[in-house]
């Protein structure tokens, strides 16, 4: 498709420049800042919808490609493009940004322009991560993204925010340094930072393993996988609502995206050799973290642990394929697993975002996240209770909500690898329902627990709007997930064909 | 109009959904009467169209309908669709579900009259009807699972309908989680189906059975198990959750915390029979595994006998009926195990009517008694509530299988079928279902006598206001009483011996017990008279007699027996300790494990040892480095020498 509008660049730089403009407008013009930020986020979203409408789902090729020389001496390019893996994540990013801006409306009282600006800039950078086809450009966006998030938690966060930000920063930064080393090594071998070139580069198994481990350190921290997950609950607890939403809905997906864009295609033989390691860690995430979630007293921690457990399905779906091919001589189940994992990422974006917003609604009113401070909220906030019921059920993977689709497909495909993997993964049906509904019961059901609950006001029209938007997408993609799979299929089928063939050098 | 059945089937499913959405989202706007009208019309349309579809398929010999409505998702060559399969099996289920649901919608107007959650309640029960229809009409496993969990969701919402009641919100979570244990197995079964059959579409799966029969898989290495057996047992675990079979039965008695209409609709007539329906639907699979059938037979007979016994010691009127439901579900399961799917479906249908009737009658009593459910505070109610009394009597007669009633035909068919079965476990099953007849009669008439006859034990305040329930309550009772008594005699011939279900149920020739019985079947009269030559009828009558002796004639006797057999009595009162076991081992254990993992695994080991340990060791290391970086040249020189020495050593040993 011939187009002169650089849509991808616009998707990155509109929110970034918009953010700078908002910052310039300053706190004195509070309403201007709010409406300006909202407009920028809506325009960005509409542009991503345009991207979707023009996207050709029949090919795995990169589309809307832009390429310009950035640093010639190192062959580093400003090189962007999207395929069926990136597109859904970009749509998720731009959609979530609108919600986050709306959620901040009356809630953020100081430095509102900086707050809005941070989120807009962050959106642009996250879009950049999903679009970059040059490994250095990717690394630039990847690290740059940490800065606004660092500020969001550090400035608007809770009392223990310094500890949480440092932990968050050190963890993710440490992981990505290893990625940088791997990328530099790959450059030294190929003379290119083009991700597609790197995917084609033949590498010996031992070196692939080292590269895989380096990538693993970066992405496993980000998604996060057990045992490098403990930064996430702390970061969530201290982050403001919007920060938690972006963190859960999008930043965790960066880890998943890294696995599918870098680890699997660049080191496919190492992925195949180390698949059991990944599967075991994924299952630990699903089962062990499921148990840990049960023990939480803080709602945000509980949802954070639930996120880690759900991300276990993403890594499981990505790495289960090698065993399926060995077992069934067919790639169908493997492709199903990867697509299920992708669906899980997208759906988790909606659901965890919605749940953090729900906790935000309660926190704004009661200034507590402790489950024990609540009880009987349904009596005073029935509309809110209905929304939260829907999201709680979606989090438990109820069919008819988007939360079901990914888990269903990953469980179906892991059965093709081994009965016991499916058995352990399917335990989420019980554990996920147990921790989610138990929290719901303690917070929402029962008689009014105390005076604070008695004085709660039900959600206002702004909050209703935000939660309705999320409720609609959760239900629509639960009842009709086909469009997402249509976008992904050609890309993922091609990807799996690539990774199943050895490229040892 | 039969050219376009697709639209009719869509309307059957969507009308209750639409009613539910309107009543749920716009409940305040349309008010209480608006909510009940919109849902009653929705379910009414659904019910009438289901009858029309029934006429089309059963009487007019119309084509079975098996079509995709839309593609849910497709991955390469695999399409997962939403679609309907309407044949004789599903259309029969549709009529029962929509009709009972319709009656219960009407009854609810009276029962929930003063409840502040009136609109919400109507929204839920219509949503339930939608989910149940999706389950019944599905033509594939994904949609089956959707309906399966959907009814579970509404059951959860309705058990916890009175959300201020601690016991109700405990019971609803328990119900959902226990059902999830079943669904866990069910999902693994579905995954097995996809792996070995390559499809989730029923017809495509059934067409492949010959190819899969005989395949084995190794769950424990070195032990090849039949694939079909593993799949069938996994699927049946799902049925054990939904249809409340031991040991996943524990949620059903507690579900009585919900309002009575839903006890009738969901926890007696429809949802709990989903497992029975599912196994019948999957008969082409289950017929290939005698191991699975035996397993079903044994689980069913344990449920039928031992859950019935628990009904003997309960004093809450609804709980007695709940245990009776468990026991009757056990009967249906036994029939499935004996390959008498038609008999299971037959009992499912008759039971739906008479059990809905009994629950609604109990509800009528509860309204009359101002929400008192303890039978020890009732007695002699027949004087005040004549319609409730007579309909209860008819329902109880059907339940105990009194000759001529619907329950008699369906239950006797099951007993006969088990008698003819040759599977391992059928001997025990036969004993269980025959002994169960006596137990059923005893607890049913214990309930009947304690409630309606004998000494009035009602407190004065209640007594002053005691009167028969309004028409919206009594009319559904009367309407349900008719099929409870008459339906059996009409259905037995065609349904069991007349090939009623045609191809929708498959029975292997060597398991076909109903055909053996059918060889001696010479009409309803013959079957009825024949029953007088066998034990069950006399056992039922004996049960009624004993109930009369114990609860009317010598009311002191039960307490004496309970005292004499204190251990047994305690065992029954404690429900065989299932609840205490689950509570301490599963619920408590899970929480302890969670807490342990968190405090030891995450906080102590990962954060405490590794993360903060790393931080500490960096501090320690940097402390050392700091002393080395003293600024004196010789220190640097010294460290350089050491470094060179190390490098040299490595070099010499060929390490670099």
Describe the structure.
The complex is a heterodimer of chains A (505) and B (656). Chain A has 505 residues and is mainly alpha-helical. In chain A, 76% of the residues lie in helices and 3% in strands. Chain A contains 24 helices and two strands. Chain A has helices spanning 7-25, 30-54, 86-104, 112-131, 135-144, 146-156, 161-190, 195-200, 205-222, 231-238, 241-266, 268-273, 275-294, 299-319, 321-328, 332-366, 377-380, 382-395, 402-417, 419-426, 428-444, 451-454, 461-479, 482-500; strands at residues 63-71, 76-82. Chain A has a two-stranded antiparallel sheet with strand order 1-2. In chain A, helix 13 (275-294) runs antiparallel to helix 14. The longest helix of chain A has 35 residues, at 332-366. The two termini of chain A are 36 Å apart. Chain B has helices at residues 5-25, 27-59, 88-111, 118-137, 141-159, 166-197, 202-207, 209-212, 227-242, 251-254, 260-269, 274-281, 283-286, 290-311, 317-337, 341-368, 386-400, 406-420, 426-452, 460-465, 471-497, 513-519, 523-531, 535-553, 557-564, 566-573, 578-628, 633-652, and strands spanning 65-75, 78-86, 216-218, 224-226. In chain B, strands 1-2 form a two-stranded antiparallel sheet. Chain B has a two-stranded antiparallel sheet with strand order 3-4. In chain B, helix 3 (88-111) packs parallel to helix 16 and helix 15 (317-337) packs across helix 18 (406-420). Chain B starts with a helix and ends with a helix. The relative contact order of chain B is 0.07. Chains A and B meet through helix 13, helix 16, helix 19, helix 20 and helix 21 of A and strand 1, helix 5, helix 6 and helix 27 of B.
């Amino acid at each position: 498709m011939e187009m002169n509008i650089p849509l991808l660049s616009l998707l990155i730089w509109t929110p970034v420049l918009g953010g700078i403009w908002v910052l310039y407008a300053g706190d004195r013009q509070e309403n201007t800042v709010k409406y300006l930020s909202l407009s920028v986020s809506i325009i960005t979203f509409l542009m991503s919808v345009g991207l979707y409408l023009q996207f050709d789902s029949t090919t795995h090729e990169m589309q809307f490609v832009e390429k310009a020389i950035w640093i010639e001496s190192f062959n580093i390019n400003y090189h962007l493009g999207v395929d069926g893996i990136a597109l859904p994540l970009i749509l998720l990013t731009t959609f979530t940004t609108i919600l986050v801006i709306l959620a901040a409306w009356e809630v953020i009282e100081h430095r509102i322009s900086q707050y809005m600006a941070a989120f807009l800039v962050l959106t642009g950078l996250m879009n950049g991560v999903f679009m970059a086809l040059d490994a250095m450009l990717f690394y630039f966006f990847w690290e740059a993204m940490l800065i606004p998030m660092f500020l969001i938690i550090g400035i608007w966060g809770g009392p223990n925010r310094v500890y949480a930000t440092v932990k968050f920063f050190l963890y993710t930064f440490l992981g990505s340094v290893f990625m940088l080393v791997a990328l530099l090594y790959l450059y030294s071998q190929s003379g290119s930072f083009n991700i597609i070139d790197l995917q084609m580069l033949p590498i010996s198994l031992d070196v692939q393993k080292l590269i895989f481990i380096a990538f693993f350190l970066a992405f496993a921290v980000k998604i996060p996988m057990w045992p490098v997950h403990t930064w996430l609950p702390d970061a969530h607890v201290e982050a403001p609502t919007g920060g938690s939403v972006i963190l859960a809905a999008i930043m965790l997906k960066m880890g998943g995206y890294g696995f599918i864009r870098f680890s699997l295609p660049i080191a496919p033989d190492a992925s195949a050799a180390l698949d059991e390691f990944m599967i075991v860690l994924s299952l630990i995430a699903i089962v062990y973290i499921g148990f840990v979630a049960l023990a939480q007293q803080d709602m945000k921690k509980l949802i954070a642990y639930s996120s880690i457990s759900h991300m276990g399905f993403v890594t499981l779906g990505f790495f289960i394929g090698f065993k399926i091919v060995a077992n069934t001589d067919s790639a169908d189940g493997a492709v199903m697993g990867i697509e299920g994992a992708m669906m899980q990422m997208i759906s988790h974006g909606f659901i965890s975002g919605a749940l953090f917003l729900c906790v935000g609604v309660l926190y704004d009113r009661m200034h507590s996240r402790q489950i024990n401070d609540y009880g009987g909220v349904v009596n005073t906030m029935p509309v809110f209770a209905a929304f939260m019921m829907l999201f709680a059920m979606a989090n438990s993977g109820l069919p008819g909500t988007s939360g079901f689709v990914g888990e269903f497909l990953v469980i179906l495909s892991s059965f093709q690898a081994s009965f016991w993997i499916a058995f352990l993964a399917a335990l989420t049906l019980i554990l996920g329902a147990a921790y989610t509904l138990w929290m719901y019961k303690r917070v929402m059901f029962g008689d009014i627990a105390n005076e604070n609950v008695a004085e709660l006001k039900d959600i206002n029209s702004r909050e209703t709007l935000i939660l309705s938007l999320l409720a609609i997408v959760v239900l629509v993609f639960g009842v009709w997930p086909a469009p997402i799979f249509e976008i992904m299929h050609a890309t993922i089928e091609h990807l799996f064909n690539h990774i199943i063939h050895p490229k040892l050098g | 109009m039969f050219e376009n059945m697709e639209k009719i089937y869509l309307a059957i499913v969507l009308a209750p959904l639409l009613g539910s959405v309107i009543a749920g989202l716009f409940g305040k706007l349309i008010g209480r009467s608006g909510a009940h009208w919109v849902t009653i019309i929705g379910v009414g349309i659904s019910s009438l169209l289901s009858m029309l579809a029934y006429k089309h398929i059963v009487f007019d010999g119309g084509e079975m309908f098996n079509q995709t409505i839309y593609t849910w998702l497709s991955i390469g060559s695999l399409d997962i669709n939403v679609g309907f399969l309407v044949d004789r099996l599903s259309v029969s289920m549709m009529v029962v579900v929509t009709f009972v649901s319709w009656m219960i919608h009407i009854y609810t107007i009276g029962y929930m009259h003063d409840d502040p959650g009136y609109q919400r309640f109507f929204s839920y029960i219509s949503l339930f009807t939608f989910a149940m229809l999706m389950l019944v009409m599905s033509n594939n496993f994904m949609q089956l699972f959707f309906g399966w969990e959907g009814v579970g969701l509404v059951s959860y919402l309705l058990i916890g309908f009175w959300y201020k009641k601690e016991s109700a919100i405990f019971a609803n979570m328990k119900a959902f989680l226990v059902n999830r244990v079943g669904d866990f197995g069910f999902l693994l079964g579905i995954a097995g189906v996809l792996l070995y059959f390559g499809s989730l579409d029923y017809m495509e799966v059934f067409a492949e059975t010959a190819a899969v029969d005989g395949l084995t898989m190794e769950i424990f290495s070195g032990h090849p198990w039949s694939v079909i057996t593993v799949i069938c047992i996994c699927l049946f675990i799902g049925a054990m959750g939904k249809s409340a079979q031991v040991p996943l039965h524990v949620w059903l008695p507690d579900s009585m915390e919900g309002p009575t209409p839903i006890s009738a609709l969901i926890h007696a007539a429809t949802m709990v029979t989903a497992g029975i329906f599912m196994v019948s639907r999957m008969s082409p699979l289950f017929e290939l595994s005698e191991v699975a059938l035996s397993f079903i037979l044994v689980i069913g007979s344990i449920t039928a006998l031992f859950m019935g016994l628990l009904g003997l010691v309960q004093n809450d009127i609804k709980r007695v009926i709940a245990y009776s439901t468990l026991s009757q579900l056990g009967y249906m399961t036994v029939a499935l195990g004996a390959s008498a799917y038609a008999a299971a479906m037959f009992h499912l249908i008759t039971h739906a009517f008479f059990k809905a009737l009994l629950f609604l009658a109990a509800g009528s009593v509860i309204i009359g008694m101002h929400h008192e459910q303890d039978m020890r505070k009732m007695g002699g109610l027949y004087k005040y509530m004549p319609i409730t009394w007579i309909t209860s009597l008819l329902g109880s007669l059907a339940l105990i299988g009194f000759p001529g009633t619907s329950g008699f035909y369906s239950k006797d068919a099951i007993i006969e079928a088990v008698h003819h079965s040759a599977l391992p476990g059928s001997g025990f099953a036969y004993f269980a279902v025959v002994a169960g007849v006596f137990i059923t009669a005893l607890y049913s008439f214990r309930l009947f006598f304690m409630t309606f006859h004998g000494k009035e034990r009602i407190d004065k305040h209640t007594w002053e206001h005691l009167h028969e329930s309004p028409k919206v309550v009594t009319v559904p009772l009367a309407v349900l009483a008719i099929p409870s008594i008459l339906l059996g005699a009409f259905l037995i011939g065609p349904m069991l011996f007349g090939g009623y279900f045609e191809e929708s149920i498959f029975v292997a020739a060597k398991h076909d017990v109903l055909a053996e019985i059918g060889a001696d079947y010479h009409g309803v009269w013959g079957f009825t008279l024949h029953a007088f030559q066998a034990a069950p009828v006399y056992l039922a009558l004996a049960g009624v007699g004993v109930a009369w002796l114990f609860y009317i004639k010598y009311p002191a006797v039960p307490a004496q027996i309970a005292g004499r057999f204190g251990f047994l009595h305690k065992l029954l009162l404690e429900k065989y300790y299932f609840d205490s076991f689950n509570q301490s081992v599963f619920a408590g254990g899970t929480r302890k494990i969670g807490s342990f993992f968190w405090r030891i695994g995450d906080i102590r080991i990962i954060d405490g040892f590794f993360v903060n340990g790393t931080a500490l060791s960096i501090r320690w290391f940097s402390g050392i480095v700091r002393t080395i970086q003293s600024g004196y040249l010789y220190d640097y020189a010294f460290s350089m020498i050491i470094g060179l020495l190390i490098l040299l050593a490595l070099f010499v040993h060929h390490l670099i």
